[in-house]
Amino acid sequence: MEDKKANKISSYYAYFKGLPRYMKIEILVASFLTLTILAALPVYAWFTDRRQLKDMKEVNAPTGLFISAAQKEDIKYLNLSGIDLKQEDTSGHRITSSYYVFCVYGASARAYNLQLAYTTNNPFEYKIYPAIACNDNDADKKVDYRAHDSNGNLTDTVYHYKIDGNQISDGNSITRRVRESMNSDTTTVYNQTISTAFLNKNSASDRTANSSKHSLAYGSYSDVQQYAEPVYWQAYGIRSSLPATAGADDEFVDYYILEVNWNTAYQNAVAAGTDLTNDRETDIIYIIAESTSWTDPNS
Q: Is 70 exposed, middle or buried (0-12, 13-18, 19+ CB in 10 A)?
């Protein structure tokens, strides 16, 4: 039996050795990609299959409440892959942040919790701000979003967005714009202080996660690289833009800007006499919205 196995291996090796160079490369690349996919499964499986976050009130994607790219387009268009750590502005200064727009939309929800979960392979910090549409020439514009047609092709229609108030964090009062009625686009503007928390971040100066939520992502599996431990952040009780007179089927769309920031990493590199590189690992970012109860503080 062992001789048969040895002969079979030898025949495979002889076959491989006789292949043209380009076919050898294709086979080796395919094998490498297969191994890469298998190695990524522990993280990927959690982000695709285990959507319950028990210490985050078992957040599941509820019916009628959704996360999308701008203009309620498919979330796949919230694409963070083009970050360039060496890009400079027109004055020759290094750019250390990038901005992306997404929205929470749905029906009935007067308030919701917003959650962010992410791995930390790259030295990025993440911040979320309320956002509002603006003109292309607005000095405060942060994001240009080019719309897609039904086939997923880019169109000539471009939407523009700017930050509308403070970052969503403890102690900040953020701007909320609530429609006066479903038949009017006029909004009432007021400020709301949101309670937020990192559930398992090591410290303000350490971007990585501690092990307190390890079982949520990996169960009893222990052989996990430090930067593959997801960090969990949550904002509680954000008021939606639905008016008080809204019916059960009335819909809202709330816009947000996600800032990806690497200024700390850049300053550390400068101090050390080095530079950042665009040869980076892959990180996974997961944004979740969960409807919650709402009590009007003015009632």
A: buried
Strand (E) or helix (H) holding 13: helix 2-17
DSSP string, 98-119: EEEEEEEEEES-SEEEEEEEE-
Task: Report the pLDDT value the prediction gives residue 19, as an integer from 0 to 100.
Answer: 55
Per the rule left: phi > 0, alpha: psi between -120 and 50, beta: everything else, 139 is alpha
Boundary (domain end) residue, out of 49, 69, 89? 49
Token pair, residue 270, equals: 């400068």
Q: What is the pLDDT of residue 198?
A: 92
Name the domain count of the chain. 2
Q: Which domain holds residue 8?
A: 1-49
Bridge-based pairing state of the strands 97-107 and 206-209: unpaired
Contact 232, 47 (CB under 8 A): no
Residue 234 in contact with residue 199, Cβ under 8 Å? Answer: yes
Encode pLDDT of 15-33 as tens digits: 545 555 544 444 444 444 4
**Percent of residues in the chain assigned helix, strand, coil, to nearest 5:** 25, 35, 40
Q: Per residue in 221-238, is it b (16+ CB within 10 Å) or e — as a string?
A: eeeeeebbbbbbbbbbbb
Same domain, 196 and 248: yes
* Burial category of 127 from C-beta neighbours within 10 Å (exposed 0-12, middle 13-18, buried 19 and up): middle
